[in-house]
Amino acid sequence: MQIQPHQTLFDFGPNGGVDGGAFRDSAFADNKTLPIHRWVPWIAGFSAGFVDGVFETFLNSAGTGGRSLILDPFAGVGTTLVQAMLRGHDAIGFEINPYGALAARTKIRAPQVDLRQFDVTLGELGDASASWQAEAPPPSVVPPPLKTRIPFFSSRIERQVLHALAFIRGISDPDIADLFRIAFGAVIVSVSNYTYEPSLGSRPAAGKPLIEEAHVAGVLTRKLRQVRADIAWLQEEGNRQRPFGTGAVFNEDFFSGSDGLETGSVDLMLTSPPYLNNYHYVRNTRPQLYWLDFITCPDEQKSLETHNFGKYWQTVRDSPPIPLDFHHENLEHTLERLRATRSDKGAYGGPGWANYVASYFNDCYRFLKVLRRVLRRRGVGVIVIGNSIIQGSEIKTETVLGEMAARAGFKLEAVHLLRDKRVGASITTSSVRRGETSKANLYESAVIVRKR
Question: Is 292 within the bounds of a domain?
Fold first, then answer.
C-alpha cells in the first residue's frame, strides 16, 4: 500500500478528531505550565492535552469498561503515563534513559507521597544550605567525569552543587529522595555554563554569557516548592474524582522489556519514538546522567546510545553498508541515493548517513512487529513522528512508517498532519549533514494503526 504525505484515510472532525474526538495541539511546550508535567524540561514529546484528545477519540468506544491498559514504549518523562493515571486508566511505560525513567516513575508515584515528610526534608534543606557558599563540600562528594569543552559550572557554583548532592544522598525516604533528585536534575543546567537551544550546548556558543554566580539552594528550593504545590493539587484531585489508575515504568529498551507484556493485552499504544533527526536524546541529558550517578564513564554512555531506538549516526557510520530487514522499494532507492551522495567523505558523507537511516527503519520494523503482538484485537496505536532531511534529501518518515504498518498486517487508519512546522531545521545545515540545499520543511504527523 502506498500513501501520499498527510493522506487522511477516514474523515476527521473540525479539529482533527475522529468519531467525535479531537487531536489537540501536540507541542510539548504546553506541558511547561501544567502541574506535574512541568517538573522536568525535555527536548521532545507531546502535550498532555494531545494525550487527552487521543484517549477521548480512541477509548470512548473501545468497549473496555471504562478502564484501559495504555502503553508508551518510549515514555520519556511520562506524559502519556501521567495522563492515563489521571483519567483512571492503567499504564505501562518503557524508557531506556534512566533520568527520563526516574522522572516518569516519580510523577506516577506522586499520589502516594507523604507531604509532611516532604516539608520536614525541605526545612532541613533550608537549614543545611546556609553554609554552602562558604564551606567546602564533603570530601566524599566529587564532580563526575563529565567531559565538556568549557567548565560545566563555575567553581563557586560547583561548590554549592556538590553540597546539594551530598544533602540529597543523605535523604532516607526513597520517594522524597527521588523528588529531590528530579528537582536537582531539572535546575542544574540553568545554573551552568550550558544551555538548551534546543540541544545542549555552551552558553557562549548560543551568544549568552557564562554564569559565575548563582544561589543554588534558592533555585533548588523554588523548584521543590513547585513540586510540592503540584503534589498537593494532585492529591486533592484524587480525593474529588474517581480513583487514579496505576502505572509502571521500566528503565529498559522496549525490545528487551516487551517480552514481559502479555500478548493481546494493550488497548491503546501512544508514543513518540526518537525522530530521524539524530537528536542526541542521551547526550542532551548527560549532565543529569553523570551528576545523578546513572553513568560514570563514556563507555556507559555509549552503551545507552547503542541500544537507543534508531541508534546514533556516530555508532553506525563506520559499519559496512547496513541493509534493510524488510522490503520497501522507495526506501531502498533513497538509501542508494544517499550512499552516492558525497561518497568521497566516506562515513561522514552519504554512506555513513545511509547506515543511520537503514538502522532507524530496521528498528521501526522491529517495533511494529512487537506492537502487533501486544495490542488486543481492534486495539489502536498512535505514533507521533517527524520527517527528516538527511544530506539534503527529505525522508517522509510518516509515509514510510505507515506503509510498513500496512504491510505488517495493521489496518492503517490515517497519517494525519499535527504540526506543519517544528523545531529542528538548524540541524539540516550542520557540518556533518550538509548535502544539497533542501527547501523541505520539518513537520510532525500522527500515524494511526489498528490491529485487525
Answer: no
Per-residue cell: 343? 561518497
- How buried is 299 (Cβ within 10 angstroms: 0-12 exposed, 13-18 middle, 19+ buried)? exposed
pTM over 0.85: yes
159 located within any domain: yes
Write the pLDDT tens digit of every residue in 48-64.
Answer: 999 999 999 998 654 45
What torsion do the CA atoms of 177, 179, 180, 184 make, to the nearest 10 degrees? 130
**232: Cβ–Cβ under 8 A, 6 or more apart, which residues?**
115
Give the domain extent around 167: 112-238
Query: Identity (one letter) of the amino acid at 445?
Result: S
> Which residue type, as a one-letter code, is found at position 338?
L
- Please give the grid coordinates belonging to residue 211: 554564569
Q: Is 416 helix (H, G, I), strand (E, B) or coil?
A: strand
Cβ within 8 Å of residue 242, ≥6 positions away = 88
What total number of domains does the chain contain?
A: 1
pLDDT tens digits, 310-368: 888 888 999 999 999 999 999 999 999 999 998 999 888 899 999 999 999 999 999 99
* Amino acid identity at 159: R
**DSSP type of residue 11:** -
Would you put residue 146 in left (φ > 0), alpha (ψ -120 to 50) or beta?
A: beta
What is the number of other CB atoms lying within 10 angstroms of the CB of residue 237?
13
